[in-house]
Every structure is written in structure tokens, then in C-alpha cells.
Amino acid sequence: MIDPFGRAITYLRVSVTDRCDLRCTYCMAEDMTFLPKAEILSLEEMDRLCAAFIRLGTTKIRITGGEPLVRRGVMGLFEALGARLGQGLEELTLTTNGTQLAKYAEALAKCGVRRVNVSLDTLDVAKFAEATRWGKIEKTLDGIFAAQAAGLAVKINAVALKGFNEEEFDAMLAWTGQHGFDLCLIETMPMGEIDADRTDQYLPLSLVRSRLRKRWTLNDTDYRTGGPARYYTVAETGARIGFITPMTHNFCESCNRVRLTCTGTLYMCLGQDDAADFRKVLRAGADDATLDAAIFAAIARKPKGHDFVIDRNTPRAAVARHMSVTGG
Ligand code: SAM
Ligand code: SF4
Questions:
Q1: Which CATH code fits 11-326?
Q2: Which ligand minimizes its atom distance to the CA of 165?
Q3: Which of 72, 126, 284, 291 has its CA 20 to 30 A from that of 102?
Q4: Hey, whose CA ends up nearest to atom 3 of ligand 2?
Q5: SS3 of residue 134 by DSSP
Q6: DSSP for 59-77, written as a single string
Q7: What is the DSSP string of 259-278?
Q8: Nearest ligand for residue 158 CA
Q9: What mean pLDDT comes out for the span 279-308?
Q10: How far is the CA of 59 from the centre of ligand 2 (A)?
Q11: Where are the domains of the chain?
Q12: pTM of the model
């Protein structure tokens, strides 16, 4: 699948639920309304769509959400997709808040998952509770160490929030280095209305990187995960740190991905509203050829890039949907 700008689309992210057991302040409002069940694809429908994408050249699938591990029966999807590894699919992975990882890490490893991204914005117990509104850090930490014990490579994702965790990145870099985890810092993106002003939360990572450089030796590397993160090796720990900077540096030129929501809506870009409705296609009884044609038609509409802006003159979210819809 090659898009109109010559980019090969090899990476599919699948949000399996819009629900979550946490309410991170930058991601959701506290009183989120979730979708009725009938609107959500069954796990079989999701597997069928994934199989079609794999048939057309997708080599990597990331399961996300909402919180993917709170979807009932989700391990059945991991098993089905795991069986497709080596049959076109090269990598199966997930992004999770870690609260259920202690329960599922071993089973995930058995399905062929080798790497997991766990979101953890702070190591401070009270701040973690504040950022997630309902979370207990011990649960996420238990999950992280269970994943490591099950043989999964762990990457910690932290959203950089002004005045919240900006003093903590030194400690997080030391902690991740000590345990052999990579760390990836992410700029907040204006997605969905939340209970706060995003201008107050936005912290440019260019600033964070130059602050970190006062204490750490960050060596350039050409390590890539096929994503937008720019990675450095931390000489003092040997671990890596990545920066995802959609706001300060546009990462679209190398974009290789599309995103499927739990309702079967395919977004060709995280930061644009155009989408293709695959639930309609599936539930109209499409055969494989019709499904494939619909996928090609969607890829042909992939836009050049996003239009994210955060400033006081643009108070509304750039796209109305929350990150938990498209899964980040
Ligand atoms: N619940 C899982 C988790 O937290 O890892 C998976 C879904 S979550 C939406 C995926 C990632 O998006 C998380 O790392 C989260 O921190 C990030 N995220 C959520 N809202 C964001 C926003 N507005 N800007 C940047 N990142 C965001
Ligand atoms: Fe849930 Fe992940 Fe959003 Fe936090 S970032 S509220 S854990 S979906």
C-alpha cells in the first residue's frame, strides 16, 4: 500500500476499546461518555480487518485503546493475531497503562508479543494519582516488572506536561536506565476537549532535551522504530531516550501508519478528520475483494500531514475526538 505521497503504509494501530480504567487529565474528561456496545466491532470483525491489512502489506500491528487490556476477551484477539506472525505480520505489540499487565504479561509473550509500551508520566506516587485521577502507581509498576519478567522489552512513554513532570525527567531517565527500559517523551497534542487549557500543559521537548543535555550525554543514533520518535543513546546508562515532537517538529514526511478505531473507523492521519467507515463495509457482508478495494481507496486519501497548533488564539482542540478514540 503506497499513499499519494509515496509513503509505504506498513503499520496499523488498532484501538480495541474507547474505555479505560484511568482518566488521565490530558487524555480524557472525568465524566467521559463511552460508546454503546453495538457500535463497537467484535473481536472477530477486528481480526478480519487486520487479516485484510496484513494481506495488503501491513507488517506491524499495535493494539491500543482506551485501555486495550480492559476489553473483555482481548487475549483472543492477541492469539488470533499472534498466529499471523511469520505469515506477513512481523510484529505484534501494544500500548497500555500497565494496570492489567501483571495479569496478562505471560500470555502476551506466549502470543508472540516481544515489546510493550507502557504509559507512565511520573514516578511520584501522589502525582501519578493526580495525573490519572483514579490510578495507583503500584499497579502500573507491578505490570511493568511483570512484563520484564515475561521477557518483554519495555518502553516507558511519558507525556511532557508543563509545571507537572518537567522537573522529573532526570529521575525518570535514571530509573529507566537502571532497569534497562527505553524512555520516550511525548508532546501533548490538541485532541478532544478536556477539563483544562492545553496551552497551560504544553511543554516543547526542544527545551526538555537541552535541559537534559546539561546532565546527560545524549548521542545521536539512527535507531528507528518506524515511528515519529527521534532517539538518542544515553551514554551514562546505555538505554535510549526518544522524543516525539508533533508540535515543534512535523513528523509526517516519514509516516507509515493508519489507525483503526474500535468502531471500525479508519483514520488515515491522527491529526485530521477524514476517515473511512469499515464497520459499514463489514456489516454489509463485503467479501475479501470488496474489503481490499475499500482499504486501497482509504489509503489513496491519506493526507500529507496534520495541522496541530496549540496557542491562546486556538483554544479549541484541533480534532474533536480524544486520543483514546484513535489510541495515540
Ligand atoms: N491506555 C493506554 C495507555 O495509556 O498507554 C493506550 C491508549 S493512550 C490514548 C496512548 C498514549 O497516548 C499514551 O501514552 C498517552 O499518554 C498518550 N496521550 C493521550 N492523550 C494525549 C494527548 N492529548 N497528547 C499526547 N499524548 C496523549
Ligand atoms: Fe486511559 Fe491511556 Fe487515556 Fe490514560 S492515556 S486515560 S490510560 S487511554
A1: 3.20.20.70
A2: 1
A3: 126
A4: 27
A5: coil
A6: -EEEEESS-GGGSTTHHHH
A7: EE-TTSEEES-TT---EEEH
A8: 1
A9: 93
A10: 26
A11: 11-326
A12: 0.92
